[in-house]
């Protein structure tokens, strides 16, 4: 591009005589340069070459030339050397100030600053060298514009920032206060703005759909609203509606708009110098067509002699207007030199260029470009923008505007094993430049996009980069201020499950990596750094867990479990450390306790925590009792038993237990439980306790009490409010369940998961009703799923509620119609919700309250709250995940027995041939329960030892110790007969 300079606008006043006024002259000094963009101010000019260098000349008294001086006039273009290391993409001149946008997304400003038009937050003083507007760092900008003493910048997704003079409302911020820092025009965020043009004291914005908004000074009609009023808020130019405007340009006090469909230009505002092109010097308060032989590019030409032109670009000067045009009869030769003059982003084309270089050392151009992109938050935030509906112009606190699939594909495209030099350079740029510069208070939501996309880069999942990239990245997120974190959380909550889980899995792997390193041994001097790394990773996972929970489980809760913890961490010691921190919060806080992040614990780890907590509480209860007993030697204080002793008769087990528990205090429930059956000599080392729970729960569930209703279809029970028993019995059952958990004993309770939800203060749902009474649940689901169009205004359910399928006649009180239930189609969800609520809550409220109170007397606490309902259920009743091979593998032997002893081989041969029911009976015979503890088969720790008697003796189970006395049988038949006889008569603890 050749540059021509007009004397009266670009030379200082003293030099007007050197060139004839109104005449353009060739700027010979720039002949050696390939100029791609030019911008002119009141009396100065900036030119940008193809290498991203800026040249300036003209008036410089306010530092607007950026040459580190305040020279009155510079006649010959000079390079702004302080920007020579920065690739500039755009320049924009105000009257006496200047701006530049770099390829890396930085916005520079210099010149006059009387009204804050530099956006630096500094008052008054002019600045003669380009300064970065720090408050705009990280935002992916598309365009800069400068007016008389105000400035604008718009992002790639249409967010508009303005600063500087605002006397007439030209910043569109609903006031007339000047701004020294860039301010977001919130009213334009949703309008999809793609271009902004500034006049002396007014502004125009163009939207993607072709709409025009104007605001600021309107004294000459330059706002186009058919008035001379000033506007302090953006207002749409309604007279341009119906036309798709693609270009706008603001002069000093007039405005131009171009509509390519008709080929017309429209103008409005000051017209005293003919700048409106209406063949009149009158002002125009609303858009008027510019007179001229202009046609649409696709319009047919009626005759060759007719002079018609197609407009390419429009420009508005001080009191002038210009248009680039071409003849429709000739090929278009005018090119748009502004095209693609924006920040650098990661896309398929640029990656292809990087990968196409010859293997080996990267060229300086490519390495610089890679470093530019991956060192710049702006470049990454402007990459991977969504183009589908909704596209990135819909970016908001709820929608990121990012195409995550594109991000993943492009990151995996650029990080390849065949090009390690590219991967190494990207890693270095992220580590040394990008991550250290991230701020905790990003200026706009568009500057948050990289927090979504970067983890998709394969470098993050490379263990070699955990410490240098992956963990520092997480640190930058957890350091964000609340407003930014809220937006990020909203965006994460829109992730598909697989995408969200990849992020969770990444940081779970980081935690496992750190714990493995710690187990191998970390020098004490590095312990603090390790703790920081571990805490950062866990805090980030905690943040993701909270997002998933708030969003209704983006992924299931167990996807956060780190199953390797059992092998890598002493969970008991971790809990004790955490417990001590709770007791003494003012102590040192250098260690990281995993108990602060309980969502990573799986069911086995939680069980270990609960067991540890129970042991601690038992020990404290025992210590307290012993202290009281010691005091009773010297003071009139009643001595107490350090254990909770239950002396019961088998034929009155409920009554005897009730009597003891009614006399017990809450503190007694925390003591170790010892059970004694009257007239039986067994010492309770665990086995007697097991049988006690088995017998008392069987008795309490007996239909003679009528406390629970049995559902044949599901084989489950639920509370029945038809019982005539005292509510204290429900309290007793709650205490029994709590004592079972507290004393690490599983009990037989055939309740649905809904019970455990309610114990954890979670609401039962229709799925829980399906578990309890499948037929009714399926029918209600069918009611919800039935197509809306096929429903009458009022209709009957396709099942009848009776005593048999609901199990309680109270439903007839809820719905008087009984068997013919009518439900309005508009409230069927309400009906289903009410039905579920009635079954699980309303109808059993007082009964469950007593049960709940009894349970929490024993088991209330923070550790219990860590469990999910199904995990708590497994804690109470065990599970049926039988693994008989694991049982054999984990069994230990004493005396003469070992795994290959002939009798042992016979035993396992017989055992594995038994039907499932007999195997379960064997477990009941040996352990006191036919269910498996939550920790699995291996936790049973079965022990087999020989006895001194002959083959006519039966096997004997020491239930307290899971110990089996097995005579030395020599034949399969004898062993089978004796074993079956023993397990069929398994009650009682008389000595063998």
Automatic annotation (TrEMBL):
<feature type="repeat" description="RCC1">
    <location>
        <begin position="105"/>
        <end position="157"/>
    </location>
</feature>
<dbReference type="GO" id="GO:0061630">
    <property type="term" value="F:ubiquitin protein ligase activity"/>
</dbReference>
<dbReference type="InterPro" id="IPR009091">
    <property type="entry name" value="RCC1/BLIP-II"/>
</dbReference>
<dbReference type="InterPro" id="IPR035983">
    <property type="entry name" value="Hect_E3_ubiquitin_ligase"/>
</dbReference>
<feature type="domain" description="HECT">
    <location>
        <begin position="665"/>
        <end position="992"/>
    </location>
</feature>
<feature type="repeat" description="RCC1">
    <location>
        <begin position="158"/>
        <end position="209"/>
    </location>
</feature>
<dbReference type="Pfam" id="PF00632">
    <property type="entry name" value="HECT"/>
</dbReference>
<dbReference type="InterPro" id="IPR000569">
    <property type="entry name" value="HECT_dom"/>
</dbReference>
<keyword id="KW-0677">Repeat</keyword>
<dbReference type="InterPro" id="IPR058923">
    <property type="entry name" value="RCC1-like_dom"/>
</dbReference>
<dbReference type="InterPro" id="IPR000408">
    <property type="entry name" value="Reg_chr_condens"/>
</dbReference>
<dbReference type="InterPro" id="IPR051709">
    <property type="entry name" value="Ub-ligase/GTPase-reg"/>
</dbReference>
<dbReference type="GO" id="GO:0016567">
    <property type="term" value="P:protein ubiquitination"/>
</dbReference>
<keyword id="KW-0963">Cytoplasm</keyword>
<keyword id="KW-0808">Transferase</keyword>
<feature type="repeat" description="RCC1">
    <location>
        <begin position="263"/>
        <end position="327"/>
    </location>
</feature>
<dbReference type="Pfam" id="PF25390">
    <property type="entry name" value="WD40_RLD"/>
</dbReference>
<feature type="repeat" description="RCC1">
    <location>
        <begin position="52"/>
        <end position="104"/>
    </location>
</feature>
<dbReference type="GO" id="GO:0005737">
    <property type="term" value="C:cytoplasm"/>
</dbReference>
<feature type="active site" description="Glycyl thioester intermediate">
    <location>
        <position position="960"/>
    </location>
</feature>
<feature type="repeat" description="RCC1">
    <location>
        <begin position="210"/>
        <end position="261"/>
    </location>
</feature>
<protein>
    <submittedName>
        <fullName>HECT and RLD domain containing E3 ubiquitin protein ligase 4</fullName>
    </submittedName>
</protein>
<keyword id="KW-0833">Ubl conjugation pathway</keyword>
<dbReference type="GO" id="GO:0006511">
    <property type="term" value="P:ubiquitin-dependent protein catabolic process"/>
</dbReference>
